[in-house]
């Protein structure tokens, strides 16, 4: 039976504020470079004041959102489940989804009271991204926001690891996974960030539970999750909890396991200017590939080209021209 959606994703809805900074900004403001740090609203406001005039762009983001946008940019059909408030950032978020052709649980005329979550994506000249996130209303993302119909009508459920940091988010993940499994919908998960595996390891293990169909992680996250070192040990450990998986290796490409065989995915050389959303785009393009007739190796190649295109520009989105360039590169 043909499903209405390739992927139904759930995650934190955040408006990304993309900002270019120098390393000394982190030293002066006591910011830990290269990580995603959860902060309170007043702390985020203080940082925003320090970078006044340097905000390059604002757009709807969040890990799973970036993945579902990536899927849509290649022509996939996605549904995104999230929570935003009835403020200007919330409306910007809804409009981004509508323009991309992504269906959602959000009703533009009936958004929640509160403050939409924001993520300061601070990019240094070495292209590394450092994120300080105020979750706002998405802190209360819960099972109430889930669309059972959308999950049932999808080939894959995709969940972002950032949700494990919230008790209601974790419960929403568990319920979504249960709905998916009861309706023969494949379950995919991304660890999202090393900090989630490091500081919320028990919750992450709880959501992995009896296993997932498809897991996305980078090598550092895999090592942290399994308590091992090195690719050989990491991939054996991940095989115990995921029927299929992708371990990304940054500029060295990725390793894809299709349930039977391993596929080394070569990187596409590029000049990196902004690593924001590279892993998210890899997941989006990969999910598009495997739900639209590609083998895991072919989907891996597409995803590698797509993520290299994303890091060669600012922001986690690809324009139509970028997508065409990616398709040309992999021919």
Q: Order of strands across the biggest sheet?
A: 6-5-1-9-10-11-12-13-14
Class from helix and strand fractions: alpha/beta
Question: How much helix, percentage-wise, in residues?
Answer: 25-40%
Based on CA atoms alone, the radius of gyration comes out at 18 Å
What is the element layout, followed by pairings?
Blueprint: E1 5-10, E2 14-20, H1 23-29, E3 36-38, H2 41-50, E4 55-61, H3 63-73, E5 78-81, H4 88-99, E6 103-104, E7 117-123, E8 129-134, H5 148-152, E9 154-160, H6 167-182, E10 186-190, H7 194-199, H8 201-208, E11 212-218, H9 219-226, H10 231-239, E12 242-248, E13 254-257, E14 262-265, H11 278-291, H12 296-311, H13 320-329
Parallel strand pairs: 1-5, 1-9, 2-7, 3-8, 5-6, 9-10, 10-11, 11-12
Antiparallel strand pairs: 2-4, 7-8, 12-13, 13-14
Helix pairs in contact: 3-11, 9-10, 11-12, 12-13
Polypeptide structure, described:
The protein is an alpha/beta fold and 331 residues long. The chain has one domain (5-329): UDP-N-acetylmuramoyl-L-alanine:D-glutamate ligase (3-Layer(aba) Sandwich). The chain is built from 13 helices and 14 strands. The protein has helices at residues 23-29, 41-50, 63-73, 88-99, 148-152, 167-182, 194-199, 201-208, 219-226, 231-239, 278-291, 296-311, 320-329, and strands at residues 5-10, 14-20, 36-38, 55-61, 78-81, 103-104, 117-123, 129-134, 154-160, 186-190, 212-218, 242-248, 254-257, 262-265. Helix 3 (63-73) crosses helix 11 and helix 9 (219-226) packs across helix 10 (231-239). The longest helix is centred in the middle third of the chain and has 16 residues, at 167-182. The protein starts with a strand and ends with a helix. The mean pLDDT is 94.
């Amino acid at each position: 039976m043909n499903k209405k959606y390739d992927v139904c994703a759930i995650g934190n809805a955040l408006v990304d504020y993309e900002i270019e900074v120098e390393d000394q900004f982190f030293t002066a403001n006591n910011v830990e470079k290269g990580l995603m740090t959860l902060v309170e609203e007043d702390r985020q406001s203080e940082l925003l004041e320090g970078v006044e005039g340097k905000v390059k762009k604002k757009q709807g983001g969040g890990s799973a959102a970036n993945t579902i946008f990536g899927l849509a940019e290649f022509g996939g059909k996605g549904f995104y489940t999230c929570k935003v408030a009835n403020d200007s950032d919330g409306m910007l978020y809804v409009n981004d989804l509508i323009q991309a052709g992504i269906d959602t649980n959000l009703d533009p005329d009936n958004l929640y009271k509160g403050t939409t979550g924001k993520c300061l994506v601070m990019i240094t000249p070495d292209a590394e991204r450092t994120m300080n996130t105020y979750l706002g209303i998405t802190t209360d993302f819960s099972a109430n926001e889930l669309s059972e119909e959308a999950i049932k009508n999808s080939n894959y459920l995709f969940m972002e690891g950032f949700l494990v940091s919230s008790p209601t988010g974790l419960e929403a993940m568990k319920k979504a996974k249960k709905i998916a499994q009861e309706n023969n919908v494949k379950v995919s998960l991304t660890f999202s960030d090393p900090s989630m595996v490091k500081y919320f390891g028990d919750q992450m293990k709880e959501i992995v539970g009896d296993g997932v169909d498809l897991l996305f992680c980078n090598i550092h996250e895999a090592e942290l999750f399994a308590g091992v070192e090195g690719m050989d040990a990491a991939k054996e450990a991940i095989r115990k909890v995921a029927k299929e998986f992708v371990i990304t290796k940054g500029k060295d490409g990725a390793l894809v396991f299709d349930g039977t065989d391993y596929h080394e995915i070569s990187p596409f050389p590029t000049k990196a200017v902004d690593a924001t959303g590279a892993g998210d785009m890899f997941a989006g393009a990969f999910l598009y590939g495997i739900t639209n007739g590609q083998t895991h190796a072919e989907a891996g190649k597409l995803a590698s080209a797509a993520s290299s295109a994303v890091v060669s520009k600012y922001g986690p989105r690809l324009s139509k021209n970028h997508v065409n360039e990616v398709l040309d590169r992999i021919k």
